[in-house]
Write a structure and sequence with these properties.
Layout (H helix, E strand, L loop, with lengths): L6 H25 L5 H24 L21 E11 L4 E10 L7 E2 L4 H5 L2
Antiparallel strand pairs: 1-2, 2-3
Helix pairs in contact: 1-2
This protein binds zinc ion.
The site of zinc ion (ZN) has 8 residues, from loops.
Length: 126
Amino acid sequence: MSRPQSRASRKVKFMKEAERMYEQLEDWYDKHPEASFGEIEVEARKRRRELMGKTIEQLVNGRDTGVQVEAPNCEQCGEAMKFEGYCPWGIHGLEGDSRLERAYYVCPHCEGQTLFPPGSETEVAR
Ligand SMILES: [Zn+2]
């Protein structure tokens, strides 16, 4: 899914999504050759929302998921925390639905000490 990745590879993924959307529209129009311009627009609009959700997801994920070069310290005991994984969360946006990811850390010594360092995806969610 996301993980840090280059701008070029994010773009490749976006281009694939855009291509897939266009192919779906071609297939749909093949099956509905009599469709009016308005009907084509309705079809395009449905797919636009899906595409925009994925576009924004791509734009945000992989850029900064909150992973830090140095692990943050535990608030309770001061020891370095351990990178545990990525936590997915969904945003129902104006232009589409996106699934973003946050890196999170846990303290190996203290029970229940979890930290989600801020990344760009928390900025956009505001
Ligand atoms: Zn601790």
